[in-house]
Amino acid sequence: MITIRDLRKVYGSFVALDTFNEEINAGEIFGVIGQSGAGKSTLIRCINRLETPTSGRVIVAGQDITALSGSDLRRARQQMGMIFQHFNLLSSRTAAENIAMPLEVMGYSRLRIKARVAELLSLVELEGKGDSYPAQLSGGQKQRVGIARALAADPKVLLSDEATSALDPQTTQSILSLLKKLNQQIGLTILLITHDMGVVKRICDRVAILEQGKVIERGRVVDLAAQPHSRLAQDFFPRLTGYQPRPDALLVTVAFRGEVANEPFMATLAQRFNVGANILNGAIETIGGQPVGQFQIELAGPERYLALDYLTQLNLAVEVQDGRTAAEQFVDSNP
C-alpha cells in the first residue's frame, strides 16, 4: 500500500530524516516510534506531502506522491486520511459538520453528505453526538470525530500523528481498540506515529524505531519482543541494572513466546542440572495475540554451561550478560 524509497528531508544543515526505506502492506498497522526530534512527524508529513521531501520517493496505492502537484496531488491525498494529537476540529462546527467538511470540499450533495456522516458517526460509536460542538465533547469523543472526518472520503490509508498522546490511559485504550476494529472491519491500512511503546505493543503488526532521523531497528513486533538484544524488547521488558552475579554464576536473559511460555523450563533446570536458578526479574506480556516474555536469571553452579545449552535446545532466545549467545558461552567453556 505504501512504498518509501530513500526518503530524505533536510532543513538547512539539519538532517531530519535520513534515507528512510519501507514497504507497508495493505491492511497492516505499521508503527513508527521514537522520541521528540527523531523524525517521526517529518516522515508522516512527507508521505502526505504537507512537506516536500528533499529526495526520495513515496508511492501510495500505486501513485508516486512525490511526483504529483496541484489537482493531481489533491486527488491523491483523498486516499490518505489523517488524525492529529490535538484533534484539529473547528469549534464553530458541530461534530457532524466537522465530519462533513471533506465531503463538502469534494462537492458531495447534501443528501449524500447527511447519509455518509450518519454512517461515520455509527462507525466511530458516536451515535447521538452529531449535534454536539467540540466544547461539549470529551477528549476521546473529539478524537473519534477526528477519525470519522479522516475516513469521510473512504481513504485506503489512515495516518495517525501521536493521536493518543493527549489522552488519558483509559481513553487511549478505547481509541486504540477503535483503530484496531477499523483495521479489521474495513481493511484500513494504518501508519501510526507514536513515542509510546504501549501503543506499539497494543495494536501494531510491525514497527520501525527512529533515532536522529535514522531507522535503528525494524521488524514484526512479536519477533522483536522475543529477542533479548532488541531495542524494542528492552523497552517492553526493562532489565535489572547494576547487579553483579557471583563468581560461579552467570547472569542470563531468556526470552520466549507462544507455547514455550507454558513449558516449565525453570523447574527442569533444577531437576536435571547441578545449578541454582534464581529469577531476578521478568514479565510476560500478550503481544500480537500470543504470550511473549523475558526473564533475567542467575545460573550458579558447576553445570551452568550445560544448563545454558539446554535452554538453547528449547529454542529459547538466550543472552548472557557479556552479550555472547548461549552457544558461544558453551563452546568457550568446553574447548
Short description:
The protein has 335 residues and is of the alpha/beta class. The chain is built from twelve helices and 14 strands.
Describe this entry's structure for a reader.
The protein folds into two domains: 2-223, P-loop containing nucleotide triphosphate hydrolases (Rossmann fold, 3-Layer(aba) Sandwich); 231-333, Alpha-Beta Plaits (2-Layer Sandwich), CATH 3.30.70. Helices cover 34% and strands 30% of the residues. It has helices spanning 40-47, 70-77, 95-105, 110-123, 139-150, 169-186, 197-203, 221-225, 231-236, 265-272, 304-313, 326-333; strands at 2-11, 14-24, 29-33, 55-60, 63-64, 80-84, 157-161, 189-194, 206-211, 214-220, 249-257, 276-287, 290-300, 317-320. The chain has a six-stranded mixed beta sheet with strand order 6-7-8-3-9-10, sandwiched between helices. A four-stranded antiparallel beta sheet has the order 2-1-4-5, with helices on one face. α3 (95-105) packs across α4, α3 packs parallel to α5 (139-150) and α5 runs parallel beside α6 (169-186). It is elongated. The model has no long low-confidence stretch (mean pLDDT 90).
User: What is the gyration radius calculated from CA atoms?
Assistant: 24 Å
| Helix content class | 25-40%
Order of helices and strands: EEEHEEHEHHHEHEHEEHHEHEEHEH
User: In CATH's first tier, which class of the largest domain applies?
Assistant: Alpha Beta
Number of strands: 14
Features:
elongated; Alpha-Beta Plaits; six-stranded mixed β-sheet; 2 domains; alpha/beta; 335 residues; Rossmann fold
